């Protein structure tokens, strides 16, 4: 009985010491835009935690009421509350690429305590091309490579790049109402994705983009030189013809480009695995049990994408860390 009491006391003091150790560390609040952002920024910020500091990721609140969105997060900038004990973690959107044109863009570029995603949004990071094969494996438990999603997104990026630059130029020149982001996204719409017709889909996209670029060059001939100069400036910010997909609107990228592609790939891989099980099963009962076990083990694309951390290998993640290390060396 005595040993049991001593054991319980030991566990109690160990837990108490852990609590005291945590309370002795500096608490740094990191405000984010939405619930979906919490896990992403927790993954980033835990890399900077030390015995002397830890981060708590949360949504902002106003008068005790939770708020969501970039505007709500940046309200803390206006009240001068940000600093080494409180940071804002937001999507970059177009604000970084606009280079100070607009209030929000100026805030992101001038305030060191506003940390941004480098890519357009968290959605883009979750769709980091080199990680998508692993996403398919996690969804289907099938490691066959039936489609090169990385090469597909690279080719998609190269096609839309000239039009993307024109879109940024329009935003910088305050003539975005003549070629809005909505117009840009409508032009680069791919339509229904099919594994066997991916190249044809990209060829159709190339024709649409070429027509729109030609139209913009005719309407804004005075901007051609500026667009060419902008390409060089964007390259300094990390935007290249090969990775443009990371800088377009994240929701469009995920819902209109990546998820339809992943769904076709995963459907194929699941069917392939199910046929393999049926072919190798010795009898009907084994087939039934194996298929049931396999189907129970597969996951949904959306759930796996939310947990995807393949972007930790990306240059954009390294840029986020560099930004953070300037505040927390």
SSE order, one letter for each helix or strand: HEHEEEHEHEHHHHHHHHHH
Biggest sheet descriptor: 4 strands, parallel
Distance between the termini: 50 Å
Which stretches are low in confidence, meaning pLDDT under 50 for 5 or more residues running?
2-10
Beta-strand residue fraction: 5-15%
Layout of helices and strands:
Layout: H1 2-24, E1 26-31, H2 35-45, E2 53-58, E3 61-62, E4 65-66, H3 70-78, E5 86-90, H4 103-110, E6 114-116, H5 122-126, H6 132-140, H7 149-172, H8 181-187, H9 198-219, H10 224-236, H11 250-280, H12 284-297, H13 301-307, H14 315-325
Parallel strand pairs: 1-2, 1-5, 5-6
Antiparallel strand pairs: 3-4
Keywords summarizing the entry:
alpha/beta, 14 helices, two-stranded antiparallel ribbon, disordered N terminus, 329 residues, four-stranded parallel beta sheet, flat, 59% helix, single chain
What would you say about this model in short?
The chain is an alpha/beta fold. The chain has 14 helices and six strands. The chain is flat, with a radius of gyration of 24 Å.
What does this structure look like?
The structure is a single chain. With 329 residues, this protein is an alpha/beta fold. The longest helix is centred in the C-terminal third of the chain and has 31 residues, at 250-280. The protein is built from 14 helices and six strands. α7 (149-172) packs parallel to α9 and α11 (250-280) packs antiparallel against α12. The termini are far apart. The chain has helices spanning 2-24, 35-45, 70-78, 103-110, 122-126, 132-140, 149-172, 181-187, 198-219, 224-236, 250-280, 284-297, 301-307, 315-325, and strands spanning 26-31, 53-58, 61-62, 65-66, 86-90, 114-116.
């Amino acid at each position: 009985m005595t040993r049991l009491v001593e054991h319980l006391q030991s566990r109690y003091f160990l837990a108490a010491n852990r609590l005291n150790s945590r309370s002795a560390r500096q608490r740094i609040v990191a405000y984010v835009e939405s619930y979906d952002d919490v896990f992403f920024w927790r993954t980033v910020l835990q890399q900077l935690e030390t015995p002397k500091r830890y981060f708590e990721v949360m949504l902002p609140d106003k008068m005790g009421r939770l708020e969501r969105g970039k505007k709500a997060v940046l309200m803390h900038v206006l009240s001068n509350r940000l600093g080494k004990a409180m940071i804002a973690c937001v999507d970059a959107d177009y604000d970084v690429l606009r280079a100070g044109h607009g209030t929000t863009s100026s805030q992101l570029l001038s305030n060191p305590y506003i940390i941004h995603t480098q890519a357009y949004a968290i959605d883009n990071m979750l769709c980091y091309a080199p990680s998508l094969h692993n996403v398919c494996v996690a969804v289907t438990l099938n490691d066959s490579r039936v489609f090169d999603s990385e090469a597909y997104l690279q080719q998609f990026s190269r096609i839309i790049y000239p039009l993307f630059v024109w879109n940024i130029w329009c935003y910088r020149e305050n003539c975005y109402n003549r070629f809005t982001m909505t117009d840009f996204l409508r032009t680069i719409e791919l339509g229904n994705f099919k594994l066997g017709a991916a190249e044809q889909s990209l060829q159709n996209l190339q024709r649409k983009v070429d027509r729109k670029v030609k139209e913009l060059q005719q309407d804004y001939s005075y901007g051609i030189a500026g667009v060419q100069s902008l390409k060089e400036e964007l390259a300094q910010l990390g935007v290249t013809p090969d990775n443009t997909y990371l800088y377009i609107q994240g929701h469009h990228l995920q819902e209109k480009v990546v998820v339809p592609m992943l769904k076709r790939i995963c459907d194929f891989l699941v069917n392939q695995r199910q046929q393999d099980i049926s072919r190798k099963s010795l009898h009907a009962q084994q087939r039934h049990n194996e298929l049931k076990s396999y189907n129970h083990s597969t996951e949904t694309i959306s759930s796996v994408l939310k947990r995807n951390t393949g972007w930790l290998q990306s240059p954009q993640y390294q840029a986020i860390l560099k930004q953070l290390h300037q505040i927390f060396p």
